[in-house]
Specification:
6-stranded mixed beta sheet, Rossmann fold, alpha/beta
Length: 233
């Protein structure tokens, strides 16, 4: 991971954190928090404005607000229309990046693990903008990464899964050693091929846990979603 202060000034570089709400984003944040020469300025999430939920993970925005609060960082939602074309998505993101550059942001961190095409797309979209992408978890073996997260106390719940890759019964389960042991052999331990997505609610990156309650599980648009609700304070 590239890091460092602005040359000759000793000023920490300003970093935005791409925030899906899941375990990989949370563990990336934990690693970034260890770098004293980085100034983390916010968690950035794309939001389905129609339903007020984080894109793909399906998490309610009120829970993301709580995550950001216990992480000690502002949450920066990027509202997307629904449906949203790729061209519209890229226009909205380009406008956001331009504003971030004006605010002095120089880097943006992503929790990608090993998918070359995803990384290449992010690098292409940021090329020439003045913002450099960071990939703190890149090419860490995912079995080792999953075990490291769990051993360190990260706790997360599966909020979305692809039933073509993972049985529906896994929806709403906690991401723990038992779940890892029961994953189908073809399933990546971190779900990097889109097998599942999660919501991180406790761990060393947070000052305290986010209280959640499990809601209903539904199938929608070919995916299985488990709704998470804010729990008692």
């Amino acid at each position: 991971m590239s890091r460092g202060s602005d040359a000759g000034t000793g000023t920490p570089v300003k970093v935005l954190v791409s925030w899906s709400t899941g375990k990989d984003s949370a563990w990336m944040l934990h690693r970034l928090q260890q770098c004293r020469d980085l100034q983390l300025v916010g968690l950035v999430s794309t939001v389905n404005a129609e339903f007020e939920r984080v894109a793909m993970h399906g998490v309610r925005t009120e829970l993301v607000t709580q995550q950001a609060s216990v992480a000690g960082l502002p949450w920066i939602p990027i509202d997307l229309p629904w449906p949203c074309s790729n061209a519209e998505y890229e226009r909205i993101m380009a406008d956001f990046i331009a504003r971030a550059v004006d605010d002095g942001v120089t880097h943006m961190a992503f929790g990608d693990l090993f998918l070359e095409d995803v990384r290449a797309y992010r690098e292409k979209m940021l090329a020439g903008t003045g913002i450099t992408p960071l990939f703190p978890l890149w090419e860490i073996p995912t079995d080792e990464l999953a075990a490291e997260m769990i051993d360190a106390g990260l706790r997360a719940t599966l909020t979305c899964l692809d039933p073509r890759k993972l049985p529906s019964e896994f929806a709403g389960r906690e991401f723990d050693a038992t779940l890892l042991a029961e994953l189908p052999e073809a399933c990546d331990p971190c779900g990097e091929y889109g097998e599942f997505h999660s919501f991180a609610w406790d761990g060393p990156m947070f000052r305290q846990p986010v209280a959640i309650e499990r809601g209903e599980t539904v199938e929608r648009d070919g995916f299985v979603f488990t709704d998470l609700l804010a729990g008692p304070a």
